[in-house]
Amino acid sequence: TTPLWLDCDTGHDDAFAVLLAAHHPSLRLLGISTVHGNASLEKTTTNTLSILTAIGRSDVPVYPGAVKPFSRNAVHASDIHGSTGLDGTTCLPPPSVQAITKPRAILAMRHALISQPEGTTWLVATGALTNVALLFATFPEMVQHINGLSVMGGAIGNGFTDAPMGQVRGEGVRFGNSTKYAEFNIYCDPESARSIFSNPKLAAKTTLITLDLTHQVLANLEVQQLLAGDPLAPLSTPNHLNLRQMFHQILIFFAHTYRDVYGLSKGPPLHDPLAVAILLDGQSEVLNFDDCGGERWHVNVVTDGLHSDLDSERGEVGRTVITRAEEGGVRIPSRVDVHRFWVLVDQCMQRAEQA
Ligand code: BDR
Ligand code: CA
């Protein structure tokens, strides 16, 4: 099994990342750190604990990390995730255990990573990169120790000739979701993102799941029905129904905000679980992530500009600009087998039902 640590800001799509990380038989989830992002740190931590409770994995330790970036205020996404960060479900249980505050998150991360053999463990980040940047700044030797870093973040629309994000919106030029250019996780803390992508050794171990990929993976009606399961199936139990119902309600809320905010009516892109799924590709699952034959990229993050700039919609803070790397560089997959991905999510849900 592949050991991993998850750093997240649990909102609607992070919940599915937690599901995959906690229930795929080929993965071993060592722990979770939480970060500011979709909502305040307090809320993303509670949401994470509640999801773990719902899926029968309260044994996974959860450590609250950074409340805000070092050099900016925190920004939240209540228009997409609601005021709790995980609005829209009536089935979410209260956490059955508390978060762990000692040791602090980055010490716990380091300890968990170092306790595994060198070159085996993955770090998966599905929120702002504050905790991850602090980990590698404080313990640079962790770069050598990990197998890889998988990040959901960024939007490159202009990096590929047929940017699906542009197609989805029918505009061609808009490829960010926070602003015209910036994806939310990078926009939240661009300085932390930059410190990761500008570290050549770390960049060479990094996989970036951008909006250009996640906007191909839409939780449309068919997917919503697949994951809702069959309420009349003979094997159904009350627990079975609640878990499916909870994830169903989460998807429906997400679908509604994506429709209202972005006019995306086909279904919401389920960004974060792809950053977990890529660990399985070619190992126990064949998801056919396509990185154009191993092409690698330098990722430059625009850090000039304030979130509060009146023209932040036009400003470029948080934009990820890519150029081809001759050596090293970040891996940026551009395609995935969407059907197999959803089957994988469904299988993890089945395992959660049995937990
Ligand atoms: C990212 O932003 C957050 O709102 C989602 O959870 C995801 O991690 C997508 O841009
Ligand atoms: Ca997230």
TrEMBL record:
- Keywords in alphabetical order, please: Glycosidase, Hydrolase
**Pfam annotation, one family:** IU_nuc_hydro
Record InterPro entries? Inosine/uridine_hydrolase_dom (IPR001910), IUNH (IPR023186), Ribo_hydro-like (IPR036452)
Q: Which domain of life does the UniProt lineage start with?
A: Eukaryota
- Record's Gene3D superfamilies? Ribonucleoside hydrolase-like
Q: Which residues form the Inosine/uridine-preferring nucleoside hydrolase domain?
A: 4-342
**What are the TM regions of this chain, as residue ranges?**
none
Task: Please report which protein family the annotation says this sequence is part of.
Answer: Belongs to the IUNH family.
Q: What is this protein called?
A: Inosine/uridine-preferring nucleoside hydrolase domain-containing protein
Source organism (scientific name)? Stereocaulon virgatum
